[in-house]
Structures are given as structure tokens and as C-alpha cells.
Amino acid sequence: MEKYIDLHTHSTCSDGTLSPSEVIKLAKEKGLSAIALTDHDTIDGLTEAIEAGKKYGVQVITGIEFSVNTDTEMHMLGLGFNIDCPHIREVLDEMIIEREKRNYIVIEKLAELGMYITIEDILAEATSPVTGRSQIAKAMMKKGYVSSLKEAFDEYLYFGRPVFVERRSISPEKAIELIHKSGGKAFLAHLNQTEKTDEELYNILSNLKKAGLDGIEGYYTEYTEEMSIRYRKMADDLGLILSGGSDFHGENKAGYELGTGKGNLRIPYELIENLR
Fold first, then answer.
1. Domains of the chain
2. Which element (helix H / strand E) includes 13?
3. Phi, psi (5° rounding) for residue 198?
4. Is the separation of the CB atoms in 5 and 33 below 8 Å?
5. Which uninterrupted H or E stretch holds 252?
6. For residue 156, what is the DSSP state?
7. How far apart are CA 90 and CA 103, in angstroms?
8. Phi, psi (5° rounding) for residue 179?
9. What are phi and psi of 188, to 5 degrees?
10. Cβ of 135: how many Cβ atoms within 10 Å?
11. Are residues 149 and 252 in contact, defined by beta-carbon separation less than 8 angstroms?
């Protein structure tokens, strides 16, 4: 029987709606053989996920999704690293402080638009020390300023929208360095969201390859078949390996199912070999 995996998922430790153990339990119910928990800028849920993996018989890969500083929306996945290494934890503590600063600026921008929320409103939606756009969106919805989380992001919080605030973050090269220092491999996530032309994207990948980039997210639920072919060819030409994931967030990203995304994903277990 073919075995399938999901190497891009989120829990309540960042902006998902299921706890780490609930994500792993769902992976078992979905028949997945392995899963990586890749919360945004935090590894707080990994110990719980690993223990749940032992309980449910699901292989758990350590993971994280770094928001990196570029001229566009770009995220770097770290997979298969040692969570006991101090390198990542030290930087993540600094990033939490930067997230808090950004929250206050977003609050000011929302007030200018006649939408009033407080830091207490944001913290009330938090289930971990990491707070950001997801908790802000929930606070906006609770106050009745938007009817859904999707509306909050699409109309206000995404890159280029009225209250989007660029957060000081690490460079892609720094993220790669941190992941490697901790014994993991670095993959550029959801290439389509960079909104770059193929030529621009190839040049970005080529430069990041020189900085140590290991691979790309070659399987992703938002990719069309044509995108998948183009991106995987870029990876092959540059000698980059592949990962893949659904970007599961639970109710915060409706329609993205664990393991299958929007229904079009089947990520082969063989990709695990890329992490060795």
C-alpha cells in the first residue's frame, strides 16, 4: 500500500485551530504515515507532537516555518532538526518581541480605519506566546468588523493590504544557517505566493542555493499541475530536493485538509528520504 505524508502543518502554537496532539491524531485518522508540525516562528508544539506521534503510531518530523525578510511574501521551512539545539530558540525569543511590536502598529492602523481592538483583545485569542495576524483577525471578527477570518486577511491583513505591517524578521540566508546549525534541512515554501516570474524565481533559488538552500516545496495544494511541473524542473536543474505539504491550519484555513489539501495532494512517503 502506498504511504503518504504531510510536511507543512500548523497548530494552536501559531495560527492553527487544533492542538499539536490533535493534529497528530487527525493524521492517524487520515491514514498518514508521517507528518511535520511547522508552526510559524515557534517550536513550542514539537515536544507534544512527538509524544502524540508515539501514542498514535505516526512518524513526527520536527519542523518550523520562518517568516523571512524579502520584498515579497516568503517563508522558509526547516525540517528534521534537533529541537534541543539552542540556535533556533535564541532567535525565536527575539522574533516574539518583534511580533509584539508589530501588533501595536496594526492596532493603530485599524483604529485609523474606525476599527478598535486592544492588545488585550489579541491576547484573549492566543493559545501560545506567539501572537500575530491570526489572533488579530479573530479579534476583528469578534468585534464584528469582519464576518470571517478570510475577509480579515483578504481585505486588511495580507501583504499589500491596508493594515499589513512588515515585521522585522531574519533574512532567508539567516534562516538557512539556523536550520543547518540545528541539523535540519531548509526548503523554500509555497513558491507561488512569492508572486515572482519564473525567471525571477529561478534567480532567487539559484542565489539561495549558494547560501545552502536544500530544496523547495514541490508539492503544495495551491499549485496547478503546470506550476508543479515548472517548479520541480527548476529544482531538478538546480540540484534541489523536494518537500510537500497541505499548509493545514484547521478552521483558520477552510478547505485545506490535512494530507490532501484541497483534495489534489498525495505526497509520497519517499520524500522523507530527502531529510536524511
1. 5-85+170-275 (3.20.20.140), 92-157 (1.10.150)
2. none
3. -60, -40
4. yes
5. none
6. I
7. 21
8. -65, -45
9. -75, 125
10. 23
11. yes
Cell numbers at residue 193, please? 505566493
Residue 47: HSE in the Cβ half-sphere, 13 Å Cα cutoff: 3
Compute the 3-state secondary structure of the chain and give helix, strand, coil in percent, each to the nearest 5.
Answer: 45, 15, 40
C-alpha cell at 41: 516562528
> CA–CA distance from 192 to each of 45, 96, 209 (Å)?
27, 27, 18
Centre a 10 Å sphere on the Cβ of residue 145 and count the other Cβ atoms it contains.
19
| Residue 249: Cβ within 10 Å count | 21
Q: Write down the pLDDT at residue 113.
A: 96
- Opening angle at CA 40, ends 23 and 44, nearest 5: 65
pTM: 0.84
Report, as ranges of residue numbers, the positions in the chain whose pLDDT lies below 70: 1, 128, 167-168
- CA gap 142, 28 in Å, rounded: 33
